[in-house]
Specification:
The protein is of the alpha+beta class. It has five helices and five strands. About 20% of the residues are buried.
């Protein structure tokens, strides 16, 4: 017997342009208020029912030995690393204040569903950013 089961990490509703603009503004305002200095900029992009949030950080100073081993100058290395995003999370839209969240798993190189820090399956874009901000706590060693 087949049975329907609700899955907060499937489906969703295409995000209207007005909601996209408000969502981006809300995430940026929250991130700047709570995580200023932990990133140089955020990349927020939308596709269908999904909102992807990436952070760009200032890279660590490379050692001379490392630069010699990879055959690049310090400036080339720093500029290249500045362009590599730190994937934080993917939000799935159901309504303006009802989203599900999936964090980016670097070990699996994909977005894995999770619940919000509140324990709920649904939350706001700000709560989604907060859930994924663990990657901004200590970015050393992720390079």
């Amino acid at each position: 017997m087949r049975m329907w089961v609700y899955n907060p990490h499937a489906g969703g509703v295409k995000i209207p342009e007005a909601v996209r603009l408000r969502t981006e503004q809300r995430i940026l305002a929250y991130a700047n208020a709570h995580y200023a200095g932990k990133f140089t900029r955020l990349g927020i992009r939308f596709r269908g029912a999904l909102c992807y949030i990436d952070a760009y950080t200032e890279p660590e100073e490379p050692s001379p030995e490392f630069l010699t081993a990879v055959g690049v100058t310090r400036e080339e290395y720093i500029e290249r690393r500045r362009q590599v995003p730190l994937h934080l999370c993917r939000l799935r839209h159901f309504s303006e204040d009802r989203w599900s969240v999936a964090y980016y798993s670097y070990s699996r190189e994909r977005y894995d569903p999770c619940c919000f820090d509140t324990g709920s399956e649904h939350g706001t874009p700000e709560e989604g950013f907060e859930t994924a901000a663990m990657y901004l706590q200590d970015t050393k060693g992720l390079s």
